[in-house]
Structures are given as structure tokens and as C-alpha cells.
Amino acid sequence: MLTKRIIPCLDIKDGRTVKGTNFVNLRDAGDPVELAKTYVEQGADELVFLDITATVEKRKTLAELVTRIAKTINIPFTVGGGVTSVDDVSAMLYAGADKIAVNSAAVRNPGLVDEIAGQFGSQCLVVAVDTRHTEDGHRVHTHGGRTPTKIDTIEWCNEVARRGAGEILLTSMDHDGTKAGFADELTAEISEQLPIPVIASGGAGTEEHFKTVFEAGKADAALAASIFHFSEIPVPQLKAYLKAEGLPIRVVG
Amino acid sequence: MKTAIIKYNAGNVTSVINALERLGVTPILTDEVEEIRSADKIIFPGQGEASTCMTYLKAKGLDQVIRDLKQPFLGVCLGLQLLCKHSEEGDTDCLGVFDVNVRKFPPLDKVPHVGWNKLTDLKSPLFKGLNEPFFYYVHSYYAELGEQTIAQTDYIKTFSAALHKDNFYAVQAHPEKSGKEGELILKNFLEL
Lengths: 253, 192
Known about the structure:
The complex is a heterodimer. Chain A is of the alpha/beta class. Chain A has ten helices and eleven strands. Chain A has a single domain (about 5-245), classed as TIM Barrel (Alpha-Beta Barrel). Chain A is about 40% helix and about 25% strand. In chain A, helix 1 (about 30-40) runs parallel beside helix 2. The longest helix of chain A is centred in the first third of the chain and has 17 residues, at about 55-70. Chain A is globular and about 45 Å long. The mean pLDDT of chain A is about 90. Chain B has a single domain, classed as 3-Layer(aba) Sandwich (Rossmann fold), CATH 3.40.50. Chain B contains six helices and 13 strands. Chain B has helices at about 15-20, 35, 50-60, 60-65, 80, 180-190, and strands at about 5, 30, 40-45, 75, 85, 90-95, 100-105, 115-120, 135-140, 140-145, 150-155, 155-165, 170. The relative contact order of chain B is 0.17. Classes of the chains: A alpha/beta, B alpha/beta. Chains A and B meet through helix 3 of A and helix 1, strand 8, strand 9 and helix 6 of B. Chain B: One of its GO terms (cellular component) is cytoplasm.
């Protein structure tokens, strides 16, 4: 049976993880590769590295980092943040990333989704969708959720799936950072309509939230950051809980 | 020991090279017939579209070269599918080493099959030390079950997770991305 994936997300700036962690056993808590290794040992199913570096020059640091991650870790990983062109995608895949996440650039130019899928295949393309509930309904937001658009979230997810997205990373800005649970209803609505997997993101605070987003939210995978970085819910504990609750989960070692 | 990775018109082989290097093996990436023939172990990775890749192999004359190889040979993902008889992807006649066909998953669930799934009914030294491991999959086409099936996985259908005939082995999942269990399969293959 296909298992539900647990995906820690690491925010990267200038080649270092930001927000920090409280892993005591890391020699260098700011080194994304060290942190990634820890998650792999704990049984994470995939990793997402989100680059929040602003300048082009510093993006070279990212490609070097991706090369180092690819040499070290033996599970799939996605790189996202600031991907605006086929060339960006090519550089990251060449460095060894398994998948690339595009967000704002796809909203500006939806044809980019077709272009990337056509050139590199849908399997390496994750379209990240940041959504917020407005008085008009669920609307796509760009630039890290700061800039609203008039695009309906569910219609957008269907459109990028048609254009060749391999997976959707759905982040609810209403839930992100609240630790009050994922956007289960919206996730379920999208996941049931789409022929491709949906990764739920935003709002994880307890083990039960993951159970709910997999069951009621119909999510194929769930992503979180701080609860893992600060060991509030260590990955092995979360997976043991979900397995005991009867969900299909890969438990290592 | 010389380990060759067959270079053809297929996706990113970096992850396979990285995985072998983690095992202390430095492979050569080549499409030269003599380099392939003289290797001790050959890995045939793959990510891409079946007909495009078969066309490339034929243009290079590698289709017959591969069929005639006698040393241990490991197909991965599309590499497995190209070793079968025929693929529904692009209505492609493949290498015909394995006596099964490759079909597209019916849309009864999400396609592609993406994520970690279990290998069962393991029947090969390739799986030495493994007990129903989880492997990472990404694929839209699957090889049917047959007499050469040495592992099965369930998703929409029960399909061939791995196949074996003579010196030819193949796995549908990505051992290079499947953690320690994946590394063990690569290690077992290198020790065949």
C-alpha cells in the first residue's frame, strides 16, 4: 500500500538554514546538510528546501548546496523558492535535486508549468500554491502569501494539474504558523478533484493534525517545519503514532 | 571492478552516481559499446519516455549490445520497462529480455504512483537482508506480473516491482532514493 509521506521543510538563506533548531546532536545546526541527514535517519520520507535568498549572486551558493545535499542524502528532495525560469530548473536538477517547486513565477506565467513539464517531465515539478480565504472565497496569493490575486485556488490547482504539474504543495496562509491544524476541508476538496498528489502545508501543531489531514483532508503527504526543527513532535514519534492509528506509514529501523 | 552506467537519452543519472559513490564505487557513465562490454557490472537507469529512449538506443546500436551482455545488469525504473517486451507508452517495442508487457495505470487512483510503497514476495539474492522493505516510486506505467517476477508491489494493480532473468535484474522503484534499504539492493547487486 502506498504510504502517506511526512516531509520536513528547511528554510535556506545564503546556504544556511534559518529559524534554527534545537537538535542537540548537530555539530552545526545552521548547516542544511547536517539537518537533512538527521531527518533522513529519523525516517522522513522526503525533504523540501525552500530558498529565501534574494540576490542572483547568492543563488550560486544554492546550487553548490544542492550538489552537497544530493551527494549526502539518499531520499528524494525538492528545492523551491525564487524559481522563475526553465534555466533555474535545469540548474537545480543538474545539481542533483529530484524535484523543483515553482510558485509565484507560475502565477505570472502559467505557460512555465507546461514548459518545465514538457522539458523535464511532470515527476520533477511541484507547483506550490499559497492560499488565503478572502470574502470572495479561497484565493491564490504570491510572494510568500503577501500578494493577493483574483485567482480561485481550486481552479488554479486544476489548471496547473492540466498543464503538467506532478504534485501540488498547498499552503494555507490562514493556518500557517497557527499550530491549530491543517486546512482539511480545502485540502480534501482539491485532493478529490485532482489526478495528482497533494501535499498539505500550514498549521501542523499536534500529531492528531496529521491524522486528520490524511483522513478528512485526503492529503497524500504533509509538510511541516518548526514542530520538527524544535523536536516538538519528532518524526519517529509522529510516524509511530500515525501507524498505530492505522494509517499507511513507512517506519524505518 | 568496473561499473558502467549506460548513458542514453534519459533523465538525471546524478542520483545513481551519487548512490554508488556513497558505496565507495566510482562508476563510469558511457554509451561506448566497448566500455559497456568490458564492464563487470552494468546499471541501466532511466527516467523519461519509452519510445524516445528506445529510438536512441537503436540509433546507437545499443539495443542488441544490451541483449547480448552476460555480466550482471541492473535496470532501474524506465530501465526495467525497456527490458520488457512492449510498452503502452508510445506503443513501443522494447528489448524483450523479460517476457511481460508494460501498461499504463488505469485512472482508478492518482497517477503517477508517487511515494513509498512496500515490496513483497521477494525471491532473489538481490533482496538479501531485506524483509518487505519500502521503496520510493515515481511512475505512470507498470510491468505486469510474470514468471520472471521476483518482487511485487500493490498500487491500483499488483505489478512487477522487480524482474530477473539470467544476468538481467531490474527494479521499478528508485533504490538510489530509497534510503538504507535501497542502498542495500545496490550493494547486493554489486556483490553478485
